[in-house]
Amino acid sequence: MARSESVYVCQSCGDVHAKWAGRCDSCGSWNTLQEEASSEAPLSSQAGVRKRTTRRSRLELVDLGSATEDPARLQTGIAEFDRVVGGGLVPGSAILVGGDPGIGKSTLLLQAVARLAYAGAKAVYVSGEEAADQVRRRARRLGLSDAAVALAAETSLETVLDGLKAEQPDIVIIDSIQTLWSDQLAAAPGTVAQVRACSQELVRFAKKRNTAVILVGHVTKEGQIAGPRVVEHMVDTVLYFEGERAHQFRILRAVKNRFGPTDEIGVFEMADIGLREVANPSALFLDGRGEAASGAAVFAGMEGTRPVLTEIQALVAPAAFGTPRRAVVGWDNGRLAMVLAVLEARCGLGFGGRDVYLNVAGGLKISEPAADLAVAAALVSSHFDTPLPADGVVFGEIALSGDVRPVGRADARLKEAAKLGFKSALTPAGAEDSALRVTGFSTVQALVRHLDPDNQ
User: Fold this and answer.
1) What is the pLDDT of residue 378?
2) Is 100 labeled as ligand-binding?
3) What residue spans carry the region label Lon-protease-like (predicted)?
4) Is residue 183 a known part of a binding site?
5) Could you give the CA distance from residue 32 to residue 26 in angstroms, rounded to a whole number?
């Protein structure tokens, strides 16, 4: 009989420790070690041992160049969702969707699975957090009560798998993976062992039965999907549903996708009847923009293959206390420190004794370096109290030497700006567009001289 000793497993990274400690040595997280039985084994491991002792299965090899047709994707009819997953759901794929509580994950997936059911697909929605009547009420509120979606409120993995094998659906929603548990493990639901084992069995079911399985995952306070990171390696696609509660829009972003691009986003707007897709995100992010004011610059960015325009706001004010503040919303704090250092060292602008506040309007999070020039233009505009042209856009990357470097897809950025009625652009040197008045800069010093009112 196997000994049942206790080990301590980190709930953040999954590392195993022989004794409890306040801090995990592997990932550095505090108070994440939980006691679990060391005799736990993956599901179906005993059956696997019996098979290996009786006979050996032969490894099947296929030719890499053999022609195979791509399976028809399951298109939900929600263009923003289908764009992010690569053109529709691939049969036999496993997708992990994470997001903050109440952001709209369940609403989006219920709308998607109902659309598939309308199209004739066999759909199953398994909820481990809500009763079936609660899901029905949400569907009724969204106007989807007539969709042929089979509902189940269950948390036992064995019961769920037995039901799915009998039903043989085309798509399955598991909401959420942290609520499932297996009776073959002594750990509590939501622990690393349970999440890893349940995810493994569901991914195996998806591959063997050619069923698209979507797993909903909780997120930690740092914004990462809770549980072991090995789950993200198991699945084919990892999606994050982002958004601020104070704003009406939501963003579906792909961070891993074996069947499509990983830099696409889908934009949705929260309405009374659920999530509504936004065909023109630039118009939404720029909605309510008033007259030209100092410290405001319109950034022409790229999200995947889609150009997105948004407003970057900066405020430079005298420090009320001895230590100046640096507050950033929607951009990288370290990137702001770099741009401020370049403006101080290369252009002679003093920000050391002044508060600096930076905000990306609408709650959008920007990560591409092409926003450097727009941030610098907003900071310089606020510093001189000189507004930028209301009909202009800005983009470009700034080097530590003060040079302004070109960025990719400049033509797409300028075409999007022209389509929305903008007339001018501040860009790296070399960018051209017949529809806009383009002013190119090779250095950030040239940008400061262009915006300095004393030089005009």
Assistant:
1) 96
2) yes
3) 355-456
4) no
5) 11
Query: Looking at the structure, do residues 318 and 270 belong to the same domain, yes or no?
Result: no
- Residue among 399, 8, 352 nearest 192 (CA): 8
- Regarding whether 289 and 214 lie in a shared domain, the answer is no
SS3 letters across 120-172: CCCEEEEECCCCHHHHHHHHHHCCCCCCCEEEEECCEHHHHHHHHHHHCCCEE
Is 87 within any annotated ligand binding site?
no
Is residue 363 marked as binding?
A: no
Q: Look at the chain and report how many structural domains it folds into.
A: 3
> HSE of 130 in the Cβ direction (CA atoms, 13 Å)?
16
Q: Burial level of 164, CB count in 10 A (0-12/13-18/19+)?
A: buried
d(CA 439, CA 437): 7
Domain assignment of residue 56, yes or no? no
Instruction: Indicate whether 288 and 275 sit together in one domain.
Output: no
Alpha helix (H) ranges present in 254-332?
Answer: 281-285
Asked if the structure places residue 259 within a domain, the reply is: yes
H-state helical runs in 90-131: 105-118
Given a contact cutoff of 8 angstroms between Cβ atoms, the answer to whether 140 and 107 are in contact is no
Boundary (domain end) residue, out of 241, 260, 279: 279
Residue 297 CA to residue 303 CA, distance in Å, equals 18
Ligand-binding site membership of 4 (annotated): no
Residue-range definition of the domain harbouring residue 248: 79-279
Q: What tens digit of pLDDT does each residue of 147-197 get?
A: 999 999 999 999 999 999 999 999 999 998 999 999 888 778 888 888 889
* Closest listed residue to residue 194, CA positions, set 1, 304, 42: 42
Residue 311 lies in a domain: yes
Residue 56 has pLDDT above 80, yes or no: no
User: What amino acid occupies position 60?
Assistant: E
User: Among 250, 279, 308, where does a domain finish?
Assistant: 279
Tens of pLDDT, residues 270-300: 888 889 988 888 877 787 676 778 999 999 9
Tokens, residue 185: 């493990």
Residue 105 assigned ligand-binding role: yes
